[in-house]
Amino acid sequence: MRAQQCEAQRGLRAIPARGAAKSGPATLRQDEMVIQAADELASPSRGAKSTAAARGAATKGAGEGRWSDPFTVPVFGITAVLLHTGKVLFWSYDPRSFWDPAGATDGVAYIWNPTTRTGYHIPAPENIWCAGQTVLADGRVYLAGGNLKYPEPGVSYYAGTLTNYTFNPYTEGWTKQPDMLSGRWYPTTTKMADNRVLITSGLDETGSGAINSIVEIFQPGAGMDSVGTVTQVGSHMTTGLYPHQFLLSGGSVLEAGPDSTSSYLFNPGDNQWSRVPSLLNDHHIYPNAIIHTDATTSPIKQVVMIAGGHSQTVPQTDNEWLDGTAPETGWKPFPRWNEGRINANTVVLADGSLLTVGGNRTGSYDGPLFHTEMYSARATVTTGTWQVMAPHTIQAAYHSTAILLPDATVLLSQDDLGSSTVEAAQHKMQIYSPPYLFKGKRPAIKKAPATATLGQTFDVATDRKVTDAVLIAPGATTHGNDMHQRAIHLPVQPRTGGLAVTLPDSAALVPRGYYMLFVLDSSGIPSVARFIRVS
Fold first, then answer.
1. 29 confidence band (pLDDT: 50, 70, 90)
2. Helix (H, G, I), strand (E, B) or coil at 45
3. CA–centroid distance for 18 within its chain
4. Model confidence at 60, in pLDDT bands (50, 70, 90)?
5. pLDDT given at position 65
6. CB 3.0-4.6 Å disulfide test: which of 34, 148, 208, 428 passes with 414?
């Protein structure tokens, strides 16, 4: 019955969500309330029994950060997307029919509010588990592919669906987009400078284990519930699933891994692929990768870093980086983690440093790791060190996710070891407060524009002196691959009561869309973010 319902949904353009009417369309005022409430949530002394206890917790957190107690969110957070409404969208397979051939197209989705730590289920359009996802310029979530068939007699591997959808964060409903030419399970989607989305890789629909070599581009429609187009633009064979891809400063898209030979540039002008120097190592089994741009320097500095995975089954510590402004110069060693990991998550923090959480040593769940590592400098500084931080208590190996929240904390979702309905109902998450939240009182953004255009200089009013401004794109992550996260340090000039902030004038550096705007004081303490739309 559930499978029939999902098949019926495929014919609908806009699929309304349960709870959408109650929550209503988000407004800028509602977004501000969410962010202001999140500031209280992030306070280092939140929940302290006494002033002395708060001081003791702050002292400990100042060195290694602090994890919240685990709490329950009744859905496997296999994919996590931060919406510009301040909420988080999760989706996964339906545990009631996992591995049941008759329920292969059954999925679940969930909306969660970080401020109240409450949420509600919404209908999933089908089993969009293991899709590729990114966020469009108007805030819609775009996803390609998902699960068509579970392995069964005659189907040796999982099979990918041809379908793709957009999600409206205001109505919390789905719109079916035109089918792709071939199925995709574990594909990668990359938003380009013109808001089109490059779609690559993924297992096809045959169940034979063949990787889809067709390269397609999604062109969004103009409205929040509009239907766009999907066009084939060539072919390219990746060496694995969920390849890491990044829009570089020149407008091309970098493919990085998993094989060392998988180092290519895609030119959206002529849809051609060209080789760049090979990576230094293989990075199989879901490594992490980030892109970070420092626009405060002239010329700008842009670093793409890939970390972890394994080479010949040995967990990888040989991390590496590429200059995004000169990819032809090749990959160079990046400081190593203290321990090699697969299935981990690396998040760009509000101050531009990096946090690596979870993962394991082998297989999908074996040898889980609980200690956290933080990079000691901005990611654009390639001579820092990784420092061991406070451990989390939930296991976060295969199918775990981690994203930065607007209050500058990090949300970690447990892995799905054990996939029953009971285990899904008791799924655990934790929130990490980095050391910068224990240094002192946080600065606050009193006023900032809701929108800004490329190249514009705008004023940000603050409650006290601040020195830095950072844009961080909302996370859209699964399997250790955040397909939307990027950080940009912005040029600033001091003003009485705040800063004048200048956006780069290139959509390749700052793709259009919603960002979290953080300001930081001279001690590196970040504000709670304001969402700003770059147009």
1. very low
2. coil
3. 25
4. low
5. 97
6. 428
Residue of 115, 109, 114 whose CA lies nearest to 89: 109
Measured from the Cβ of residue 2, the count of other Cβ atoms closer than 10 Å reads: 15
- Structure confidence by residue, pLDDT tens digits, 75-85: 999 999 999 99
B/e letters for 331-359, b = 16+ CB within 10 Å, e = fewer, are beebbebebbbbbbbbbbbbbbbbbbbbb
Sign of CA dihedral 510, 514, 516, 519: positive
Tokens of 428: 């655990």
Amino acid of residue 24? G
For tokens 């741009």, name the residue: 293
Q: How confident is the model at residue 317 (pLDDT cuts 50, 70, 90)?
A: confident
- pLDDT averaged over the chain? 90
pLDDT value at residue 160 = 97
* Better pLDDT: 143 or 58: 143
Nearest one of 341, 322, 346, 318 to 332, comparing CA atoms: 322
Token couple for 232 = 């084939």
Q: Confirm if 163 and 146 have CB atoms less than 8 A apart.
A: yes
DSSP state of 4: H
Give the pair of three-digit tokens for residue 306.
Answer: 């890939």
- What is 308-363 written as a DSSP string? --EETTEEP---EEEETT-GGG-EEE-PPPSS--EEEEEEE-TTS-EEEEEEEEET
Side chain identity at residue 345, one-letter code: N
Q: What is the pLDDT of residue 8?
A: 30
Residue with token string 């032809």 = 328
Element (H, E) at 22: helix 20-23
* Distance of alpha carbon 260 from alpha carbon 278, whole angstroms: 5
Query: In a 3-state reduction of DSSP, which class is residue 59?
Result: helix
Q: Which tokens in the block code for residue 333? A: 């060693």
Residue type, 23: S
For residue 253, what are its two tokens? 């898209």
Return the residue matching tokens 């999902």. Answer: 6
Q: Which tens digit of pLDDT belongs to each residue from 258-306?
A: 999 999 999 999 999 999 999 999 999 899 999 999 999 999 999 999 9
E strand segments, 415-525 = 428-433, 445-447, 451-452, 457-462, 468-472, 476-478, 481-482, 487-490, 492-495, 498-502, 513-520
